[in-house]
Give the backbone structure.
Amino acid sequence: MQSKEIDLRLEALENNPREVIDVLKKNINLTEVAGSSEAALDLFLLGRAYLLTGKQDEAIKPLNLALGYYMLTNSILGRFNCFTNLGIAYRELKEIELSIDSFEKAYHLSYEIDDFKYLIKALLNLGSIYSDLDNKSKAIEMIEKALEYKSHIEGTKILGDLYNNYAYTLIGVERAEEALKYLLLAKDVYKKHYGDRLHINYIIVLANIGETYLMIKSYHLATTYLKEALELSRAEGMDFISMDCCLNLSKVYENQERYKDALQIYKEYIQSRKSVEKSENNEEIQMLKERLELETEKSEKEIDVLRNVELKNKTMELEKTLKNLSLIGAIGQKLTSSMDMDEIYGILKTSIYDLMHADVFGLALCDYDSNKILYKYFEHNGQALPLMEVSIDDRSALTAHAVYNDKDIFIGNFDEEYQNYLDRINVTSSMDQAHAKCIIYCRLIGENGVIGLITLQSYQENEYTESDFEVIKALASYVAIAIANAQKKNLISEKAKELEYLSYNDPLTGVYNRRYFNYCMNKFSKEEHMPLGLIVGDMNNLKKINDFHGHLMGDQYLIEISNILKTIAHQNHIFRLGGDEFAILVTGATKSLMEDLTSKVQNACLNVELVDIPLTISLGYEMMYGMEQDLNSVFASAETKMYEEKRAYYNN
């Protein structure tokens, strides 16, 4: 996969992704990994086109099939592009852990590509994940790292993306005026890149500029940019942009006390929002609505003929269900936007009590390690009950029956129906079975099966209908997503910490890496740290060790060297610059201290016995006494002294 070829194909793709999908779908095999570079490129482009049209779930399969080929052929650029787009797809599908994993892999690959734009793309994507996790400071850090390389991407579209992303993150921390500067820069970049050709990036940045002017109360400029973005988005059929522009324009007019204009544009916002919401409806809920609407229509026809009271009641029940289902989407959005278990339960409980009556209500999670179902929340008439545990193998509990048999339960009259589910009744251990008559258990289904369940119970027989059961099942799907996200929250936090550690530390030895060395060289080159001492070291015989004893033994030598450096120079900064190269930075240094350190390190090496090749390291040091000295010269001098010692070592 050549970079230039990819860029040309992607540019053509972005102009009309739907047309690309129609063409590629006819000739692409979606059942196996690509067998040629041409087939892999087509699969990648199909996945990218699905992303651009908002079909993230359909994008994943072709991207993975393309990735399979690039893994087999060890194509760095191919893997980078696939991981990047998979990360975007997973992010939009709220699969945050998978998204982070994909973006991390792309980030590491970017260092192997001789083009800074790929490193910048990777940093931007990592910044977007941190922003989604509400870690704005980390998001800004990632994007500011990318900005350090902006001189390498002058005249390219990605420079506009960089400015736009930075502005978006700055807005998140209420730095709107600073964000505005970067939005205007992004607009100029896009205008120059796309020329007279309209593109979604250009229209979005116009809308963002307008919204930012609104934030800083510059209403005239806000109106100018929002109107232009609104006109262009309507012409291109981009309802989601039109919707935001209308809403922000209504706020501008309201602040200017132009209430008639505000009302008119707000009506247009409502129409745009309806259009967007219609396209984003949950498919499962929509299918259920359609089925219920068909039943309602059928019932109404029968009522017209028979005037049957029972059918009228059924119609009323269906209308009630349809009304409840219309609320499920809003409830689901609240649930899935939370990552806190207590908050999830609070939203769920309030929503359930608004929809229907419940004497007993609970939420339980499965712990397969202990083979138990643990009630995290359990209450009677709004009052908390003692929490309980149920064995998954307990044949006297409906809770266990639902999980063990992987089946939801709806019982209208427990006394008459319990034998359909239970071999026996354990009255002492299950309050619901001892007292409740009408019972619902709905499973919470995650990626790997049942993760828990919710139960709704009434002391009144036949309190709930089949329609109520369907509504609770629909709601349970959102609850499962919300709980899965909450459970992943800690894992994601750990991943973020691990990523931060790896960005500054060498994974083999645990000492700092070259990136952090470059940072520290600039950080410590200030008067308060002078004199600054720099020791540069290079281990001897590593190639010989690898050749005769294998790379695992070579790694062990590197670890031993690192441990010696950490022990002897533990109060100073120690770095592995790459391969067998090491460095130590010493603030407030003296020549005697530097000589003492180098001597102690080399003597300590003599005490290590691994195999028949001795552990030795060649060292050289240099001092920096003031700001007038050049950092590169200091490093070069220390490195030269190290090489002189290395030559002397090999000559002996």
